[in-house]
Amino acid sequence: MANLLFYDNPVALNKVTHKDTKIKPQVNDFGFARNTNSVIIAGVEFSEAAKEYPIVFAQAGESIVPVALLGLRNEENLFVKEDGSWDARYVPAFVRRYPFVLAETPEAPEQRMVCIDQGFAGFNEEEGEALFEGEEPTPILKQAIDFLEEYQKQYLRTETFLNRLKSLDLLISLNAKVDMASGEQFSLTGLLAIDEKKLLALDDLQALEFFHSGELGWVYCHLMSIGNLGNMINRVAAVTGAGSDGEQTEDDKPAKPKSKAKAKK
């Protein structure tokens, strides 16, 4: 799960190189995320994301990251409609920040530079809003920078939460097997979830640290969100259960799919 999932050609913004560059917002067009089945989310997003997506944890190199599942199969996003619109009320910040992104500078990894995806359809020099006015960023770029900086700040807070989960050994493997009415089967592996039994076994001091940090709410948002896997399976059934003519009739509608999920210690 790379940090630049759908960025085809990210380049650092420069007031000289991009002095004539404009950006034309693509309103409610999330086609760029069509093949992305999960995105990293910050802890502050859990309360809204948990209403619509399963929130799980995944290994990313040496790190563990929280992700919102958008699809159950590779290169599948069940929330991007054919016209590119997003089929859910809450859109994760990872998606909303596109086409901008903060990237580490080669010389000083602790510093960040603002980049933009040159592959973005609205990136041009003919129409839209300018990114620079003289040597200063325009309001649209300032707004993007503010969003990126706030996202980065919230994710640093999330890393503290993740370190607490790891130090207390609260994460366990989460595996799910899905049996569709069509006979198709697929499995979700390599995911992690919080072990509620271990959570309840924490001593008072450890539990209070979760409570006072505000992270206890994140924990239960995550646990409750696992139930959204059933909704995801229904979305898969709606996609794969169409008749041969591409339209779903009453007789063609699949029976309610079954799934089995279990956590392993």
Structure description:
- The chain is an alpha+beta fold and 265 residues long.
- The chain has one domain.
- The chain has seven helices and 14 strands.
- A six-stranded antiparallel sheet has the order 3-5-4-13-12-14. Strands 1-7-6 form a three-stranded antiparallel sheet, covered by helices on one side.
- About 7% of the residues have low confidence.
Radius of gyration: 21 Å
Order of helices and strands: EEEHEEHEEEEEEHEEHHHHE
Mean pLDDT: 86
Helical stretch count?
7
Number of strands: 14
Shape: globular
Proportion of helical residues? 25-40%
Strand fraction equals 15-25%
Major sheet characteristics = 6 strands, antiparallel
Strand order of the largest sheet: 3-5-4-13-12-14
Alpha carbon gap, first and last residue: 23 Å
Helix/strand class: alpha+beta
Structural domain tally: 1
Brief rundown of the structure:
The protein has 265 residues and is of the alpha+beta class. It contains 7 helices and 14 strands. The radius of gyration is 21 Å and the shape is globular.
List the SSEs and their pairings:
Elements: E1 10-12, E2 22-23, E3 38-40, H1 46-49, E4 55-60, E5 63-69, H2 93-96, E6 100-104, E7 112-117, E8 123-124, E9 129-130, E10 132-133, E11 136-137, H3 139-167, E12 171-179, E13 185-194, H4 196-200, H5 204-213, H6 215-225, H7 229-240, E14 258-264
Antiparallel strand pairs: 1-7, 2-8, 2-9, 3-5, 4-5, 4-13, 6-7, 10-11, 12-13, 12-14
